[in-house]
Amino acid sequence: MTDIEKKIGTASLKTIAVVVALYFCGLFGAGFATRIDSPLVSRNQIEEILNEEKRKLGIKEDIKVNIVMGDYIPHTKKTNEKEYEIYLPKGSTRFCNFTHELYHVKDWDEHGDHETGYYLFWGEPMATIYSLKNRKMGRAEIK
Ligand SMILES: [Zn+2]
């Protein structure tokens, strides 16, 4: 028995493990559900709606967001003090992937660099909830 097991008990540890596993299943499931009716968007479409979506989220105007498309899993990088890059998969990018990553820009700008715990248990679920609510484009789909 390890020290931590002695302190909080094996049964409690199992409960915590089950709760954490359910949490990540829920997070993954919500991320997957978000994609179901979210339209595919092109780089041009994203560029056209980028400023409008930034405004909706309340991202400051002086924050620059660059869209990079290629063989990427969606993610966001801070490249400068007021500059971010959103990496999206080319060809099969869903609108929800874009709104999810844009939420990370807002969160990052407002809360600065944060720890993995913040990201896993606050930043990521909040981005997932935002993209779930904003998985469809705000106006008629651009063809
Ligand atoms: Zn995320």
Jot down its keywords:
binds zinc ion; 143 residues; three-stranded mixed beta sheet; 3 strands; 5 helices; alpha+beta
Short description:
This protein is an alpha+beta fold. It has five helices and three strands.
Note the topology.
Elements: H1 3-8, H2 10-36, H3 43-57, E1 64-70, E2 75-80, E3 83-89, H4 95-111, H5 116-133
Parallel strand pairs: 1-3
Antiparallel strand pairs: 2-3
The chain binds zinc ion.
Structure commentary:
The chain has five helices and three strands. It is α+β, with helices and mostly antiparallel strands. The protein has one domain. A hairpin with a 2-residue loop joins β2 and β3. The site of zinc ion has 4 residues, from α4 and α5.
Q: Give the N-to-C terminal Cα separation.
A: 61 Å
How much β-strand is present in the residues? 5-15%
Instruction: Give the total of domains.
Output: 1
The gross shape turns out to be elongated
Sheet with the most strands, sense and barrel status: 3 strands, mixed
Please give the number of β-strands. 3
Q: What oligomerization state is this entry in? A: single chain
On the 0 to 100 scale, the average pLDDT is 89
Class by helix and strand content?
alpha+beta
Helix and strand run: HHHEEEHH
Low-confidence stretches: none
> What are the bound molecules?
zinc ion
Radius of gyration: 18 Å
Total helices: the number is 5
What is the helical fraction, as a range of percent?
55-70%
Side by side, the strands of the main sheet go 1-3-2
